[in-house]
Structure formats: structure tokens, C-alpha cells
């Protein structure tokens, strides 16, 4: 990354997002809801995803979409199923206190299509068929060099451009981690000889063949005997890998797609370098077991979007952006750790199989099951906001509350991506005059205790300050002590 005298004048857009995958689209939507001038640069000429990619949304991600009022679109397109698991051991969350005690089976093609439609409704421009080729960060902004029609000038640049992120590399951000020990080929191909479909395990690893119907190509996932090169795989590579496992390549031909992935685990040393921030695969990569990659990226976006919006809109100081790394880097690190643990349990030797069987028995214990199911579904994430009520830093439960206008869900006021102060005490005791332009005040009533996944019931507070990402920033227990400090910390000083 070169230095520059660029002072940030004459912006083309306030924020430019490199990458129009799920994370980039979610970030664009979050920023657009806050009135930020944001644009996406995407190297693909269409939103179509070639080949197999992520195939599901976890419970917490569905909640985030619900908080924006768009979850129904995804639920209508997918299938609600119990997809949470650890090392391919299923973890049932049907008894969890959430409006969505399940996962959603939905291919990435559909996830991206629905997010792109939402972003289009919000008026976000997407420049397709264009790649970021370099960048120059100055004191007041970033110049983004493009493969054509560049450069673009922006106040902030967001790298959502995948595991090989050029933005991350150009910003000089390290990507430490663990080298691959195993590689896999995934493909969609036509076959001459119809294979036996299903999962197959042997000394090499885990493999799978699948097709939705007789007219579709066969979906292939095969573990390679040795870690493959970083080059693009060929049909010959796939033929050799299939033959090593099945004794035949089934006469594969006419591939729709062939790709290679590994169990490499890496995480960006920092999620922020000045006016450049990373999210999604640009910030963390790992084996896809457990299905946490895409979900973690979408959750990165919802954590960052409202913070960046407040900074560029001038209501909060630039230092608010430092909390993005502080909160999300530990989450990413735990995802990497959890993923590596699952992969270790899937080795095919007899000793590892015995360990896997023992872990499976442990996960049958209800308390252990709830702990790991909350982790894998994203429901247990707690940001360290200091000591206090058990709800502090955790996701806000979607309570059914009674308001003067009738019954209301706690998620509904979050549709506009604005912070909410939910007042469950006697009305009239809160003065939000200094933050009235930024924080919605909802007076309501709620009967009963609050329940959190894996924690059980917690004491019901009298007031709750909810951030736009749905996490609790402050809890009142019979008083308003600390409220003004929390409002200032997260939403800027009073006007």
C-alpha cells in the first residue's frame, strides 16, 4: 500500500466495497439503510455462483435477517432443518429460545440472489466485471485502482474480496495461520456411468456424490490423496482423485465447474488498517465443516455496518471502528479453533474413530449439547462489554412485548438498523433528548423471565439499550445509572 497526499476530497462514493458476495452485499445493505453513499465493485459479470458453495444459514444469521425484516424471503426459498453439528455429529436446537430454532438449507446462489435483490431495492450501485487492482491510502481517503474505468475515490474501502483478498495484501495486513494438510476437489460434471450416490469414507478421507434429479450434473466432493497445488484443478485431476477412491472416474465429462479447497486456517492480523477494513473470507478462512464461514462473514457485516455508518455520518468518533476488530477478531479465532478441532476428529484411523465416538456420547449430554449447539449456531456470541447483567454483550432475545400500539416483537424496531432503548419500566422516566435523532425509544411491558440459549433463565431487566446489530449495549436494573455513558460510547455524544 503506497502512501499518498490524497486528502479525501471529491469522493466518488463515501464507501467502496470490494467484493459482491454475501458479506459485501450484507455490508452494502447495512450502510444503505443508514443513508451512506456506498457502491460495490465485483469482478463477476453476474451474481451467479459457479459450482458448489455454502449451503446453509445458521440460526443467528436468520435472526439477523429477521432483525432487518427480510428473513421471510430466505425462509420461503430454503428448507428449515436441523443443520447445526460438530464433527458431523448433529446438534438439535429445536428447544432453543429463538423464533428460529433451526438452520436453513439454502445454496449460496439463492442467498446471494436474495441479498442482491434487497441491495438493489436500497439503491446500491454494483459495478460488475471490474476488479480492484491496487489502492492508495491517504490521510483523508482511499484511491481504489480498478481493472478498468478507475480509479474510484472513497472515504473508506471495505475488503470483502475473499480468501485471496487483494485489498488485504495491498494494505499490508498479515494473514497468519496454519498450512493445509488436506485438499479436496468439488465439481459438477456429467457422467457416462451412473455412480452410487452418497457419502463414502476410507483411509484417504471423506467423499460424496450427489445429484438432485436425473437431468442435473453429478455433484462431486472427493478428498485428494496428497495436498494439491495452488493452481486451478483440471478434469484430469478430478479423474485421478475419483479413480484413487472409487477405482473408476465414472466417465466424467463436460464439467460445469471444478474447484479445489483445503483445510488451511488463516486469520487477518488486524481487521482494520486506517481507512481499510476487512470482513468475511478476506479476514478469515478455514475448512467449511460446520458451515460457519458464510455465516461468520454476514455477522461481520452486521457488526461493522452500523459503526461505519455512524462514523461517516459524523455522529460518532472514528475510534468506534476499533471496536469492530476488538469484537469480531476473537469470534473469528474461535471459529478457526472449532473448525480445526472438528477436522482432527474426522481422521480415519481407529484411534481417532474411538475419540469421535466418545465425543459423540458427550454431546448427547444435554448441557454439553446446548453449549456446543449454541456455539455452532452462533447464538452464544458475547462481546466483552465489561461486567454486569448476563445479557450485556449478548444478542437481544426476540420477546413479544406489549406497547401502546399493541403487541410487538422486539426485533421489529431494528428493521431500520437503528439503536433501540426498550423501556420496560414505568414510562416517562427516560430522557433521550440528546440522542433522539439516533435512538428509538420503545415503551413496553413484558411478563416473565428472559431465557438465553445454554444459559437458561436470567433476571428480567427494566431497560435495555440494543445496538443495531441486535447486541445489548446496556442493561438497567431498576435505575438508569450508566445509560448516558453507554449512549455516548456507542452512538456518539448528545446533540
UniProtKB/TrEMBL annotation:
Gene3D superfamilies: 3.30.70.2450, 3.40.30.120, FAD/NAD(P)-binding domain. It holds the Pfam family FAD_binding_3. Coiled coil: none annotated. InterPro entries: FAD-bd, FAD/NAD-bd_sf, RIFMO-like, Ubi_Hdrlase_CS. It comes from the Bacteria. PROSITE patterns: UBIH (PS01304). SUPFAM superfamilies: FAD/NAD(P)-binding domain. Residues 14-338 form the FAD-binding domain. It comes from Mycolicibacterium rhodesiae (Mycobacterium rhodesiae). Keywords: FAD, Flavoprotein. Its cofactor is FAD. One of its GO terms (molecular function) is FAD binding. This is FAD-binding domain-containing protein. The lineage of its organism: Bacteria, Bacillati, Actinomycetota, Actinomycetes, Mycobacteriales.
